[in-house]
# Entry
Amino acid sequence: MADSVSIEAAGVGKRYCRSLRLATLYGVQDGLKRAVGLKTGGEPLRSGEFWAVRDLSFQLRRGECLGVIGPNGAGKSTLLKMLSGSVLADQGKIRVAGRIGAMIEAGGGLQPLLTGTENVYAYAAQQGYSTAQAQAMLPRIVEFADLQGQMDKPVKQFSSGMQVRLGFSLLAHFPPDVILLDEVLAVSDARFRAKCLNRIPQLMQHSALVFVSHSMPQVARVCTAVAVLDKGACIFQGRDVPKGIDAYYAVCEPDIPPVSSGTGQAKLLDCRLLLDGQPLQGALPYGRELALALDLSAKAAEAPTLSLTITNPELNNIIQCDSAFSGFRLPADGARHQVLAELGPLHLNPGLYFLSLTVANEASGEILLRSDNFAKLRVAGEYFGHAPVQIAGRWTLD
Ligand SMILES: Nc1ncnc2c1ncn2[C@@H]1O[C@H](COP(=O)(O)OP(=O)(O)OP(=O)(O)O)[C@@H](O)[C@H]1O
# Structure
């Protein structure tokens, strides 16, 4: 292995058994085989067994951050546990150069019976730092974790968010050669999450990172490569992180049904997506103008405004187009009206989106109709960017 490679995984796999009874039996059989010097794990799957991770290979160097993404049960945590050494691989080889720091669960790497301060000394010693170095670093660790006044109690009395703060702060101030992070930031508040995400590029100067997350914006921000797992198999691997994220969304493409709510005074009777005045066939090419023909009716005292929202597959709002901007209002006479909403060119990343509509009384805020996910929109294009909206801009030398 070249010196600069911090983690090398070659054809790594882990098998588990669905039945506890069979798993116990296989455990005894494997133990006996190993006792007489026979290798285990290489044989075909036995009854009830499945591959939690299969045939995964990658190399990771300092300065790199591999995002491991995939649906629930895809094998992400199993992979991290194999990399950390807490679970033995049944297939392939893992080599890690140097020290590992793992946050595979809140409190991982911390000693629950020791106080926060004692944990700082214990962790520093474990990573090969002296007591004097730990003492010098202590104020910065406490400040980063925002745990002033809390460090004298045992870590088992910390909330899970506080444990993550201390655990991450230790990694940040005594960076090991390899850092494994498993979805830990999910329990932190927005402020600390932002602090950690901001710190990761600095950590990468010292360490190679493996980052498991279900938050695609976080993955897009910090990862230099991604591996997408599905049922234990790696279905995408590479440096094109946005393309990997798209592969992830394709695997767990949400089947989100349309949902309606509101007072019921407005109705969405029909909707057509248009490209160049014609019904949109298939995907909208990147950057092209989208229009919507909406058949609507409303019966109310005031003419309501219309608001269209485009969301990503996680239903995060990406674009909003509100008719109040242009002063447009839907007649509230109870008759059926066809409304043309021209959204202009959409510079959305290729992928899947959903459309939602709100019909509301602007003055009172009363919602006459909220129609969520009433249509799906697929955007097609070659260029995948790190943010949901990609604009060309105009670049010139002054
Ligand atoms: N100790 C175990 N014994 C048996 N099966 C297990 C064990 N640990 C994990 N599994 C199974 O292995 C598969 C992969 O689990 P893993 O925890 O690695 O998934 P994951 O991708 O991390 O999921 P999530 O996103 O839900 O955290 C799942 O089917 C899980 O039920």
Remarks:
- Residues 259-380 form a domain with the Coagulation Factor XIII; Chain A, domain 1 fold (CATH 2.70.50.60).
